[in-house]
Each structure stands twice: as structure tokens, then as C-alpha cells.
Known about the structure:
This protein has helices at 19-22, 271-275; strands at residues 2-3, 12-13, 28-31, 34-37, 40-45, 49-54, 58-63, 69-73, 81-88, 92-98, 103-108, 129-133, 141-146, 152-157, 161-168, 173-181, 186-192, 195-200, 204-210, 213-218, 232-235, 245-250, 254-258, 264-269, 280-281. It is mainly β. It folds into 2 domains: 1-181, Methylamine Dehydrogenase, Chain H (7 Propeller); 193-283, no CATH class. Strand 9 and strand 10 form a beta hairpin. The protein is globular, with a radius of gyration of 21 Å. The N and C termini lie close together (7 Å). Residues 1-8 and 278-283 have low confidence and may be disordered.
Amino acid sequence: MEVTSGAEEGFIREWTPCSHILNLIPPRIQTGIFSTELSLTCVDAVSEYIALGTNVGLVYWYDRKKGNIQRLRCEASTSPITYVKIVSTVDYMVGAGNAAGQVTVFQIPKEHPENIPDTLKPKVEPKVERYTIGDLHKSKITSIEWSKNGMRLFSGDKSGVIIMTEIDFYMHLCKSMEIVNEEYEIVQMSYHQNTLLVSSLYRTILCERRDARWHVSQLGKKERKSLCRLGAVFQHSYARGGGAAAYCARAGLRLWRADAQGNVLHTLLFKVIYLTLFIIRIN
């Protein structure tokens, strides 16, 4: 691993090769009588699996323990996948958004523990379920966020529209509704206890669900002076206790720490640290 002060090279580079994964993915894919070059467009990971989005409407599901790979096909197979997000609940839930504004949800059953007797295992192995959320987004998906239990999915697009989809696993149904329109591209979302933290090119907002309605408040008193691709996340410390803090990136190498009501508590400055960085090699 190398830490460098070069802005073009980035701060941290990991030299561990991923050839064991890439060798399982074909360089080209056949579509009718034509073949198309396959490119990886996005990635997300949990401790057991890695999801890789492609430019041909496929999501590759890599098992990190067994070393095998599975193809998950979206309904719109010609549109590139622009965002993937995984959450591990009773099953693995994978949300994949594409350039046409369509969101596909894959419900992937978890394997049964080896110590469970065969008599308690289901006679028929459950299959991967697919849900398609279409006709709500009119531009490409730029961000996806899950609730912790995997029953709510939030999708944001390039036009600033955020859609919440509630999934009923037992009835195999999903219900979607628009909760806010920021009119600027959604950069990142983070969800914690009925509050959705949203960072767009223009500003960062908090969307809190109260009395079956969504209430929107801005994080901080001022919007950004210029449009920037800056994100924001919730971070909860179980050691300190208390509520989750919202961390919001700002221009000029600054970071805001705010509470769940959007009040800025502290500003962290990284400019001094950035200017004094030297190349560090870790063997």
C-alpha cells in the first residue's frame, strides 16, 4: 500500500491484484449475432460477497469464500448498470440501478449453516427473486441506499428525484413513492432510524419520516457556493452511545459533523494535513 501526496494518483492505492475475480468474467459477451466488450461500471461488497455492475445489464455476484461467481440479469439487459448496493439481512438484498432509470432488486437466499440437521432444511432450495422498479426515474440512477432490515430501498437519480420502495417479502410485492425532488444530481445517501441523509450537487438535506410524512430540513445554514460532488454519511458509535452523527464533506478540504436535526457541531479542517503529506511506503 502506498500513500502519496499526488492529487492525480490519489491518497491510497492497494496493490493486491483481483485477477482471481477478473478471470471469472468474460472480456466479451454475445448479444444475438454480435459480441459486445464487457466493462465493469460499479462495485459494492460485504464480508461474504462482492457485487460487480457491468455495461451490459448484468450484475456479477462473487462468493468470496468459495471463489465462484453468479450472473444476475436485470430486465433491461441493454442498459449499463450505474450503481449497486448490498445489504445483508435474512437474505442478501442487492439493488442495481441503470442508466435508463430502472432499479432491479435481487433477493438472494443465504446458505443454511452446516450444523443444521437435514430434517430442518427445506426440501426445495429457494431461488433468487427479482423485483423491477420502473417508470419512476427519468434519468440514470446515481445512488442507492438500503434500510438495515432490507425492507426499504431509496434510489436517487441524476435529476435529483428520490424514490422510496417498500418491499413485502411474503407477498412478493413492492410499492414505490417519490419522497423528494432536489432538482440536482444525487451524490450519496445514508439511512439511519427513519432519517435519510441526502447529499446532492447543490446541498445536503435530512429527510425524516414523521406521522407518515417526510419532513425535509437542510444540513447547515448555507448551500454550497458551487455545484460539487460531495457526499455525506451517518456514523454511529456504539462505544460513545447516543445518536448517530452526520458527516458532510465540504469544499476546501473541510468536513462538517452535525446532529440528526441538521445543526453543525464541528468543522474538521484537512487542508493543513493535505499540504504536509509525504510519500509513505508500507511493506
